[in-house]
Design a protein that fits this description.
The chain is built from 7 helices and 5 strands; from the N terminus they run βαβαβαβααβαα. By secondary structure, it is of the alpha/beta class.
Length: 227
């Protein structure tokens, strides 16, 4: 009996507009699609509800919601409810308070392990280096370095010479370009959530809300979550 050949993908699904677009791309290009959502101790779980809705909408092969309550170990405005969410504007030279220490390193490690265990070829994540908040783990050089880690630190990379492919298809797109691209793919924006504050409706003032609003405005589109 021959071993099953690898194929398919896993999407690191936060429930936001970028990861939703990546999910749509993966469903188009790399089935079967799995999704992994991590509750890492962020100040609200509203985005997890969106991730569940998106996974149902796209009928993914499997959706795992993993509770990894490491928030108390990570000093960030996203894990400390008392800290201020809004900055005075995006400044590439200054990392904002909403940066979560090593979050993408931790989440990528988990997702690479998931992909290798399920014999999936690719990992999709919605990081962006154009309209973003200055996070160091959203940069191309970080992804290149992590791809090398995945090659050196996994069985498939060492024995099979075939590490999990790390795909960040939105890396060099602006938020407006992501909105236009998502519209072409039919991404259900109404199911997504970006606001750092949680609640029943987006706050409209945190950095994530402002970046999202600017993207829809520049794209000439209406955001159904605030319409």
């Amino acid at each position: 009996m021959t071993a099953r050949r690898p194929g398919g993908s896993v999407v690191l699904l936060s429930g936001g507009m970028d990861s939703a677009t990546c999910l749509a791309i993966a469903c188009r290009d790399s089935r079967p699609v799995h999704a992994l959502t991590v509750g890492y101790g962020q100040r609200h779980h509203r985005e997890v509800r969106s991730a569940r809705a998106l996974a149902r909408h796209y009928r993914v092969a499997h959706h795992t919601v993993l509770e990894l309550p490491i928030g108390p170990l990570l000093d960030s405005a996203l894990t400390r409810p008392a800290r201020r969410l809004r900055t005075d504007g995006v400044d590439a030279a200054r990392i904002p308070a909403t940066y979560v220490p090593a979050r993408n390193t931790i989440l990528l490690a988990l997702t690479v392990g998931y992909a290798e265990s399920h014999r999936l070829d690719a990992l999709y994540l919605g990081v962006n280096a154009i309209d973003y908040s200055g996070y160091p783990d959203c940069r191309p050089e970080f992804l290149r370095a992590f791809a090398r880690v995945a090659r050196l630190g996994t069985k498939t990379g060492v024995e099979g010479h075939r590490a999990v492919q790390i795909r960040a298809p939105l890396l060099r797109k602006s938020k407006a370009e992501i909105v236009r691209f998502g519209n072409r793919l039919g991404v259900p924006w109404r199911l997504t959530w970006s606001c750092y504050a949680g609640g029943r409706r987006p706050c409209g003032t945190c950095d994530a809300c402002r970046l999202r609003a600017d993207g829809f405005r520049r794209a000439g589109a209406v955001d159904p979550t605030v319409a």
